[in-house]
Design a protein that fits this description.
Elements: H1 39-51, H2 53-60, H3 70-92, H4 94-100, H5 102-115, H6 130-136, H7 146-161, H8 170-174, E1 184-188, E2 193-197, H9 201-207, E3 225-232, E4 235-240, H10 243-253, H11 258-268, H12 274-283, E5 287-292
Antiparallel strand pairs: 1-5, 2-3, 3-4
Helix pairs in contact: 1-2, 1-3, 3-5, 4-5, 4-7, 6-7, 7-9, 10-11
Length: 295
């Protein structure tokens, strides 16, 4: 039975940072630049100081102490930044948080944020390296399934925010000469993500959803799964796939034409039905476009 922990997010009062020009007794600091830092340089130093206490000291000399010392001003901002990013991470990885508990999740999030701070202004892009981080996180070493659960949650997150694409019409495929079938390159829906795990991560994900009322026990020895995550309309769906279908779609995602992709699928599952799978995936809008290799 998987452990469930509460989620807490500390809040801090808003503070203002007052900047002052740098002054050095007796003249210019020999280690400093000949000119005062630009606004951009101050902003970069401020951002660096929020995420790294060692870099905060260099920036603190530009901050007026006011009611609190400069370091305290930065600490308040740092607290708010880490609290906000931890909340953003928890929104993407709610099952991971339930599995490890709120305290452990905040501990892991703190280390993750320091190593992988946001690289864009869009928080939807933040957190993609969390599964890899958990793989190497010493405190999570005994939870071998946890990184794969995180990969599934990131795939769900990506699928939800992915673009849309029109459905593929069968008449378009019918116009392709039979002798060119092997050169067909199929493209998946922008939201489609493929996951494979040695653990029953779909079951783990299901029993840790809000409102789940069934048997919560999970047998980690039940075996692995191959999954397709895809958004249809506004709903993200997770499908369990057999080896052949998963291998075929993975080959398409890797850019392989139909001939080598079908060879890979048949090697993974000798009884694989290629024609039925292609028809189903076009109807389910997993396959949304094609081209001919070499054209």
């Amino acid at each position: 039975k998987m452990a469930v922990g509460p989620s807490t997010a500390p809040q801090a009062a808003e503070k203002r940072v007052f900047l002052q020009p740098t002054r050095h007794p007796g003249g210019r600091d020999p280690s400093a630049s000949c000119t005062s830092p630009s606004l951009h340089e101050l902003q970069q130093a401020f951002a660096g100081g929020l995420l790294d206490e060692e870099r905060a000291g260099a920036f603190a000399r530009h901050v007026i102490d006011d009611r609190f010392p400069a370091a305290r001003h930065l600490q308040v901002y740092r607290h708010n930044v880490f609290a906000g990013l931890t909340e953003a991470l928890a929104a993407v990885y709610p099952v991971v948080q339930r599995l490890v508990g709120g305290g452990f999740f905040k501990y892991a999030a703190d280390g993750f944020i320091r190593r992988h701070p946001p690289q864009s202004g869009n928080l939807h892009d933040f957190g993609g390296e969390f599964a890899a981080f958990l793989t190497a996180f010493p405190a999570a070493r005994q939870l071998a399934y946890l990184p794969d659960v995180a990969r599934l949650e990131w795939a769900w997150h990506q699928a939800f925010h992915a673009g849309e694409a029109p459905a593929l019409a069968f008449e378009q495929l019918a116009a392709v000469p039979a002798e060119r079938y092997g050169a067909l390159k199929f493209f998946l829906h922008p939201s489609a993500r493929l996951i494979a795990s040695s653990y029953p991560i779909l079951r783990i994900w299901q029993v840790n959803q809000e409102g789940f009322a069934g048997e919560p026990a999970v047998d980690l020895a039940a075996g692995g799964v191959r999954l397709l995550v895809q958004r249809r309309g506004l709903a993200v769906e997770i499908e369990a796939l057999e080896a052949g279908e998963h291998t075929l779609l993975r080959a398409f995602a890797d850019g392989q034409p139909l001939a080598p992709a079908s060879d890979r699928a048949l090697a993974a599952e000798p009884d694989f039905d290629l024609a039925a799978t292609l028809r189903r995936r076009v109807l389910r809008e997993t396959i949304v476009h094609f081209s001919l290799a070499g054209c």
